Amino acid sequence: QVQLVESGGGLVHPGGSLRLSCAASGTIFNINNMGWYRQAPGKQRELVAAITSGGTTNYAESVKGRFTISRDNAKKSVYLQMNSLKPEDTAVYFCHVVGYGTRFTWENFWGQGTQVTVSS
To answer: N or C: which end of the chain has fewer CB within 10 A?
Structure first.
């Protein structure tokens, strides 16, 4: 059973920074795309940033230039460095991994979510 464990959320002032981390545990033979989504109250979940196994990145327009996604394949981990945070970045952030596990097929795995609140 694959689990994604997230950490790093919290409360920060506007203009501040946070770094989210997500580590996959359990039996997972290969990982393809990794990414971060977020969901604000009353809104749909949206892609924030994603990174392929080859290191190609993709960002939502609203976070370009402020957020940086990275991954450590050896640690089965993905990170999101968030700088210049704005109140509109407030949301629950979810880690997402496309992985090949014990069902011998590619599957979508999700973390439990971590709250990020940007407020003065």
So the answer is: C
pLDDT 10s digits, 8-18: 999 999 999 99
CB 82 within 8 A of CB 75: no
Give CA separation, 47 vs 3, 24, 94, 104, in Å: 20, 19, 9, 26
The CA distances from residue 43 to 38, 46, 63, 66, 90, in Å, are 9, 9, 17, 22, 12
**What whole-number distance in Å separates Cα of residue 14 and Cα of residue 56?**
29
Question: What pLDDT tens digit does each residue of the chain (120 aa) get?
Answer: 899 999 999 999 999 999 999 999 999 999 999 999 999 999 999 999 999 999 999 999 999 999 999 999 999 999 999 999 999 999 999 999 999 999 999 999 999 999 999 999
Task: Give the C-alpha separation, 29 to 112, whole Å.
Answer: 21
